[in-house]
Amino acid sequence: MSKVGHCHNDTGEFWQVGRARFGGRPGWVLERPAERSARSSNENASMVRAAHIAGWRSDFVLPLLVDVAARIGIKPSKLGRMDRPIMVPVEEAYRLALAFRLARRTRSMARVEAIVEAVRGFRAEETYLWYSYLQEASMNGKETRLAGSMAQLGQAVT
């Protein structure tokens, strides 16, 4: 699995999210464009996995996916029968990556739900800020601790 890398500013870049299966379990995968230096001149549109989620946790991120779909003008009812990935703006992609990666770090359904609720309520600036915290936590091996903090934040909000 590839790490996402540093945060991008709003450059009009799009990521893609689509249905996937991991070890027989249904889920979602979020992919970002490969770094320009990593692309060959013929592969301008190559994508790299940024985050994924599968199994029961993917059920808990569905409300967030529905929100994202609605904000980008896609009918939420189309999510269940998508046959190809949908393109999402960077702001929404960071929101999804944050939820996917943090939800994967806990075994508690209540904590996963709290994480997703916290992320759903973030403004763009908060999403970028928390994502940068996630990147820092990942480099220091503290991603699980950040997931716990995010769950507490979500429980405080609801």
Number of strand elements: 4
Count of helices? 5
Main β sheet profile:
4 strands, antiparallel
Structural class: alpha+beta
Any idea what the shape is?
Answer: globular
**End-to-end distance, in Å?**
33 Å
The rounded Rg comes to 15 Å
- Work out the helicity level: 40-55%
Mean pLDDT: 81
Order of helices and strands: EEEHEHHHH
How many structurally independent domains? 1
Task: Write up what this structure looks like.
By secondary structure, this protein is α+β, with helices and mostly antiparallel strands. The protein has one domain. The chain is built from five helices and four strands; from the N terminus they run βββαβαααα. The chain has a four-stranded antiparallel beta sheet, with helices on one face. Helix 1 packs antiparallel against helix 2, helix 2 packs antiparallel against helix 3 and helix 3 packs across helix 5. It is globular and about 35 Å long. It starts with 13 loop residues before the first strand and ends with a helix. The N terminus is likely disordered.
What labels describe this entry?
5 helices, 158 residues, single chain, alpha+beta
Write the layout of secondary structure elements.
Layout (H helix, E strand, L loop, with lengths): L13 E9 L2 E9 L13 E8 L1 H16 L14 E4 H14 L5 H12 L3 H16 L3 H15 L1
Antiparallel strand pairs: 1-2, 1-4, 2-3
Quick take:
With 158 residues, this protein is α+β, with helices and mostly antiparallel strands. It has helices spanning 56-71, 90-103, 109-120, 124-139, 143-157, and strands spanning 14-22, 25-33, 47-54, 86-89.
